[in-house]
Amino acid sequence: MIIGVPKEIKNNEFRVGMTPAGVREFVEHGHSVLVESSAGDGSSFPDEEYVAAGAEMIASADEVFARANMIVKVKEPQAVEIARLRPGQILYTYLHLAPDLTQTKGLVESGAVCIAYETVELPNRSLPLLAPMSEVAGRMAAQVGAAYLQKPNGGRGVLMGGVPGVLPAKVVVLGGGVVGTSAAYVAKGMGADVTIMDVNLDRLRYLDEIWGNSVRTLYSSRHNVDQLVTEADLVIGAVLLPGAKTPWLVTRDHLPTMKKGAVLVDVSVDQGGCIETTKATTHADPIYFVDDVLHYGVANMPGAVPNTSTLALTNSTLRYGLAIAGKGWKQAVIDDAALAKGVNVLDGKIVYKPVADAHGMDYIELGSLLA
Fold first, then answer.
1. Residue 270 is among the residues annotated as catalytic for this protein
2. Which of these is catalytic: 31, 96, 254, 359?
3. What is the pLDDT of residues 173-189, one digit of tens each?
4. 96 tagged catalytic
5. What homologous superfamily is domain 2-119+305-370 in, according to CATH?
6. What residues have CB less than 8 Å from 20, skipping those under 6 apart?
7. What average pLDDT score do residues 139-155 get?
8. Which pLDDT band, with edges at 50, 70 and 90, does 240 fall under?
């Protein structure tokens, strides 16, 4: 199979869909890999490393899309990229379709086979291709929150760990999954007073067992959210419903009750956000204020640390990508139920129910099309 790796073109996106080491694996399995020139520069992988791994360097994205059977990316395709897709071509990347009607319609019209990293799901309900970026984004959320709490950056002027005689920052993490756990881990390490909230008591018990009293756990009831958000210096939104739009836990009405200069970091923004006043921002213009509360809503947070992120992503996506290339997408999803859940759009039809439900569009069961 011919694999295409175009340069990412989303605002301030520096990651790339595959490392040189990943290219080498595809080549050694008998496949050809086309990499757009300078695609890896932002992640500190120069063209020479791709050539040494066996890639063919291509001058234009148009040619990469035209020649490749499967396109491997990081972020959702932009409008110009959707226009390059053709029926039957495989798109393997993050999609986050539930909050994005325009992209959903474009992919449906393309006729491409669209496999979303974020909805590949193992029997234990873990998300192996979302996990590495969730780990990066969660750890970054605490770092970013700490930076924006500084007064020159717009925050309250609170030090995460405090100092002797002065209390540390109060950090509330909404969601105890991979993002929330990673955020709490770093915030705890910075010395903050951290509370992590979730509705899954088994998860809270697990976190209590591994961290003890160094991180507080609290059931995520409406009453508890109301109280903790009001007291917080930093709130990190880390809620996820796989493939579906995220519910709002922090509403517009909460903001007047919050501290002036408090910081909201909504890592859930690429699935619609768990904070009502969140809107997607970019690394070029990351923050804005509502009622004197600082909002950070960058939808591709891991893009700020692209070397780490690209390495972590390829580590996870490679196995499934090799299966798709080696068997063809149809046999690969028949053989692997986890990968089958990654198929969101196929032959002009939506085959992932949460996406169809989010947009009020028709849903077709994947199995009926495979038969």
1. yes
2. 96
3. 999 999 999 999 999 99
4. yes
5. NAD(P)-binding Rossmann-like Domain (3.40.50.720)
6. 40, 45, 49, 50, 52, 53, 55
7. 98
8. confident
